[in-house]
Each structure stands twice: as structure tokens, then as C-alpha cells.
Amino acid sequence: KGKAKGQKGKKITLKIAKNSIQISSDGGRRLDLSKMGITTFPKCILKLDDVDELDLSRNMLRKIPSSIQKFQKLRWLDLHSNQLEELPKAIGTLQNLFYLNICNNKLTTRNLPEDLNLLKNLRILNLGLNCLDSIPTSLGALKELKEIGLFDNALTTIPNSVKKLPKLMKLNAERNPFPDSTNQEKHADSIKRIETLYLVQDKDLCCSCLKMCQDEKDKLNKLKNVTPSPSKKLSFPLLLTPNSSAKDNQEEWRLR
Questions:
Q1: 104-113 pLDDT, tens per residue?
Q2: Ramachandran bin of 2, using left for φ above 0, alpha for ψ from -120 to 50, beta for the remaining angles
Q3: Cα 234 to chain centroid, rounded
Q4: Does residue 204 sit in helix, strand or coil?
Q5: How many C-beta neighbours within 10 Å does residue 231 have?
Q6: Closest CA to 101 of 165, 135, 55, 163
Q7: Are 112 and 136 spatial neighbours (Cβ–Cβ below 8 Å)?
């Protein structure tokens, strides 16, 4: 009596998990357990380790176990909008992974496993809306990387090994505390190929959020037709992120 009870999430059974498997457009098997109020990684899904895609986004997960390595066929892993403070080293064993979204969590640079650099086939990586104060230079080993989100962190610089990745086409580093305007312009020059990076699909947004995002996109399209003054600093459009348009305060993004 008198002790606060911990938050208890929804229990996922094997039957619920099996019923949550969908067939993706390319014929792959997708296990979608997003928005289900899960607080603990459901061990029962380890029996479904032959799926190609796993979506655990928009839950309340604090930890991903090392047993994630059992999903060796996994090509697509979405963990955005949870309460993750670290990732297991075992995530580096998912050699078929080409999409990894860990946006909107509580990850720090210290708890970002170096083994991420083992994901040689990774094409899209979203690290936005976390607590990163630096980016490991070892991520420069991800030679297949085409898109990366680094927005809304505590970065003061981006390593050249990442900026100069051979296939990188889109990078978003908005709303980081780069030390001065000169350095910000330097970062802008290095990612001048970037226009807009979408890491969620329209179907994943509620009607009001989708309308808000579409309105923002319309505003940006109008701005493209206006010739900027020579003194105006380079800027990049908003990276569309889960649930809402971007806000200055990260905590406003957190799912309660």
C-alpha cells in the first residue's frame, strides 16, 4: 500500500501477433504492432522471426533485448516514438536491414551501439528527435546509406565521414545547436542536394496531422517560387516526423 505502481502496458499474445501480420506491397511479411500501448518487448514474437518487416513504433518501450538478433530476415525495422534510452549491440547482426527508424526516443551518443556500423546494407536511417550530442565517425562505414535524419538533437558538428558518404542524397540536421552561422552554412553547403525527407507514409498519420503536413508542404512550394535575397541564409524544409509538425521543445513530441 502506498507504493506507486509501474505503468502496465497491453499484453501481446502469439495469437494477437499472428493476426497483426500483413503482406506488404512487395510480397514480404510485415508484423505491425504499432500504437498498441506496449511497454515491454513481447517475447512471443520471437516465434515469428521469419518476418521481413517489424513495426513497434508509437509504443512505450524502454528496451529492445539482444534477442532481436533472431530476426535475421528483417529488412525494415521501425522503433520510432518510444522511450528507448539504448539499443542492443545485437542490432548490428541484422545484415539484411535497409530501413531503421529510431526517431523520437531518448537515445544518447554514449548508448548508441558502435555495431550500427555493421549494417552494411542500410539505406535509410532516422536518428532525429533524440539526445545525441555527436555522431560516431564510424557511421561513415555505411556506404549504402542514402537518407539520414539527425534533426532535433544536440549536435554541434557532423563528421565528414557521414557528410561525404558516396550515396547520401538526403540529410536533415535542422534544429541542432551548431556553434555559429559560418558552421551552419558549411553544413548547408555539404547537404545542398537535399530537399525533403519523408520517413513516414501518409497512411500512418491521422487526418488532422496529415492536413497540417500538407498545408506546410503547400507553404514550402509557394516559398520555392520566391527569389531569396542574397543575404538570406540557406535553410531546409521541415522533415515530416510522426504525429505533428516540428516543435522546438522535444518533450512536446513524446507520446504519453
A1: 999 999 999 9
A2: left
A3: 24
A4: helix
A5: 5
A6: 55
A7: yes
Distance CA 228, CA 234 (A): 9
Domains in the chain (CATH in brackets) are: 17-172 (3.80.10.10)
Per-residue pLDDT of the chain (256 residues; tens, 9 = 90+): 444 445 567 899 999 999 999 998 888 999 999 999 999 999 999 999 999 999 999 999 999 999 999 999 999 999 999 999 999 999 999 999 999 999 999 999 999 999 999 999 999 999 999 999 999 999 999 999 999 999 999 999 999 999 999 999 999 999 999 986 545 545 544 454 444 444 556 656 666 667 777 777 787 777 766 655 554 444 444 444 454 444 444 454 444 3
Q: Are 22 and 30 in contact (CB under 8 A)?
A: yes
pLDDT tens across 164-201, in order? 999 999 999 999 999 865 455 455 444 544 444 445 56
* Beta strand ranges found along 127-193 (DSSP E): 147-149, 170-172
Parallel, antiparallel or unpaired: strands 76-78 and 53-55: parallel
Cell (9 digits) for 158: 557532423
Burial of 228 (0-12, 13-18, 19+ CB in 10 A): exposed
Distance in angstroms (rounded) separating the CA atoms of residues 201 and 182? 35
Euclidean distance between CA atoms 19 and 236, whole angstroms? 41
DSSP state of 181: H
Residues 98 and 122 sit within 8 Å (Cβ to Cβ): yes
